[in-house]
């Protein structure tokens, strides 16, 4: 039995994409991967999904209207353009203002999580020595969450993976 069509956008083929795709396929979702690097995606996902070969920033609303769910797993290709987390979120939100469908899922970074001390994990990350080589992505993902938190007329949800991801079954 197949469920409604859904898609995910990605320019990165990492742990989140693998896990999301595996779950979607196992649940019999009709899954389409919207990818910039088709060969890399095919190596990763094989024939388990359909493919739409297009850069996420070239997408038009018409490309996405047939999907019931869109999972944004986008990751910019460099820290100097980490702001693209926010840019793509804003683009997807703008496409679907005042609508219930599709449901937008945003995979955010652990930096947006609360740290149990009244702040965010990003606050703790900022304290790590020599953080400048990688901190821009968590900073921009936290800003993406802040932006999304202001959106109340789009059907969206944000998911922030734990601080460390590991392969294997879910643990409690």
TrEMBL record:
Return the Pfam families for the record: NAD_binding_10
Task: Spell out the SUPFAM superfamilies in the cross-references.
Answer: NAD(P)-binding Rossmann-fold domains
Q: Per the database record, which ranges form the NAD(P)-binding domain?
A: 18-167
Highest taxon in the source lineage: Bacteria
Q: Which Gene3D superfamilies match?
A: NAD(P)-binding Rossmann-like Domain
This protein's name? NAD(P)-dependent oxidoreductase
- Lineage of the species this protein comes from: Bacteria, Bacillati, Bacillota, Bacilli, Lactobacillales
């Amino acid at each position: 039995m197949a469920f409604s069509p859904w898609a995910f956008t990605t320019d990165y083929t990492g742990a989140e994409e693998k896990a999301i795709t595996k779950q979607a396929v196992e649940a019999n979702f009709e899954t389409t991967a919207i990818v910039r690097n088709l060969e890399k995606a095919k190596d990763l996902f094989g024939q388990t999904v359909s493919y739409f070969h297009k850069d996420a920033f070239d997408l038009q609303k018409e490309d996405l209207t047939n999907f019931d769910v869109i999972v944004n797993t986008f990751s910019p290709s460099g820290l100097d353009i980490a702001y693209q987390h926010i840019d793509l979120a804003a683009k997807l939100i703008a496409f679907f203002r005042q609508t219930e469908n599709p449901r937008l899922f945003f995979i955010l970074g652990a930096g947006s999580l609360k740290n149990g001390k009244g702040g965010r994990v990003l606050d703790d990350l900022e304290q790590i020595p020599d953080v400048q080589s990688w901190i821009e992505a968590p900073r921009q993902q936290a800003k993406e969450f802040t932006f999304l938190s202001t959106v109340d007329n789009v059907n969206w949800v944000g998911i922030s993976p734990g601080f460390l991801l590991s392969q294997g079954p879910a643990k409690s």
